[in-house]
Amino acid sequence: MVTAQEYVNQYRGARRETSLDAAVEDGAQFVASERESALADPRVEPAVAAELAALNPEERFLLAAYYLDHRTLAEIAKLQGVHESTISRKLERITKGTRKRVRKRLLQSGMTARQADEVMEDVDVRDLKVAARETLQQNPSNSAFYPEKGEPQG
Description:
Layout: H1 2-14, H2 20-26, H3 44-53, H4 57-68, H5 73-80, H6 84-108, H7 113-122, H8 132-136
């Protein structure tokens, strides 16, 4: 009885599986994704790039550390000397503010509010051709430290 039940269990588990040969014959391995690779509107990338460039150095650091360097909130908080919930709130405020300012730029570029909202919902940040790493890196000329002795000021 136990052997018969085990056979039934294996049969039920395996009947949903298909062999690789059957999948190739059905063309299943060649199914393309439905995701569009091109953006619907060319005004999105310049708006995002301009807003990333307009961020202050602390905001750039937080975004780069969290999203590009994949640091944890605790690591960033330790670097900043604050609690990790403070970093979480700052990141949330930065991302929401950036989204609002990108939307505002889209409206200024001639989009209606509805179009801007649709574009903001449909856009996948991975499809944007914005040099985020270069934009978010700290600019040495925009340093928060005093210049070394002998360095030109200006």
